[in-house]
Protein: LysR family transcriptional regulator
Amino acid sequence: MELRHLRYFVTLAEELHFGRAAERLHIAQPPLSQQIRQLEGELGFELFHRTKRKVQLTEAGQVFLSEVQQIIRQLQQAIQVGRQTSRGEIGQLVVGFVSSAAYNILPIILRTFRSYVPGVNIELHELTTDQQLEWLREGRMDVGLLRPPIEENRFNCETIFQESLMVALPEAHLLASQSNVCLTSLANEPFILFPRILAPGLYDLIISLCQQAGFSPKVAQEAIQMQTIVSLVAAEMGVAIVPASLQNLQRIGVVYKTLQEPIPKVAFVADVGAAIAMIWRNNETSPTVLKLVEIVKQAAQQW
Structure:
């Protein structure tokens, strides 16, 4: 039994007329009659009562029609699902992101991706850069949003967002009333930083900027999340240099100030770290993952 036999049967059952059914199927009437006979022979029961004046379904034919129509609907659904899967339009993705991405590009990425492929479920995990690399190596994650640089050639890594840096100060700080802050005025301040092992790019950038201003920062406390760093600033534990998008994190007791001296252009290239990059495996074959990568790359051109 072939699928075309079932298609011929359903068409004839709908028309109950060999001539009209043959016309719909774009075949001659005799071959249609022959195919129906072959199907009945294979099934072992008659599907139609035939007279010179009309064609009618047998009782067995009516039951068989109902079942076949269900099979055809399921087949059409299977074809549709297969096509959507091949285009990356359904499935599930596991996406990691550094905490600061939640205040700039992550909401935009999620809205944009969902508008194009609403059938894909995204499972999000807030992870540090080194945790994301570990998850990618273990196959626990599909795509990451992290702080470069990344030196492992097993991954594709593309910068998708760059931003300036600002100073986060306690609200009661003597410099809080100024419109901008000279970095040298922070030389004697306690600093709150990420541990270097978790975000070497951003850490090295901050240290480099301070050294260019003539001092090495006194690290009073380290924290692995941007929210924690800002909270510690609010608690007057120190000051912090943070990505500008952290202004979107409204925290009582903290003020954000632009840096007075121009930041060197080198601070904005991907291999220094004042950026967010998208990372995925080199050998990735999942259409859903590649769809996300494609959409984010296109969207990043507008940022």
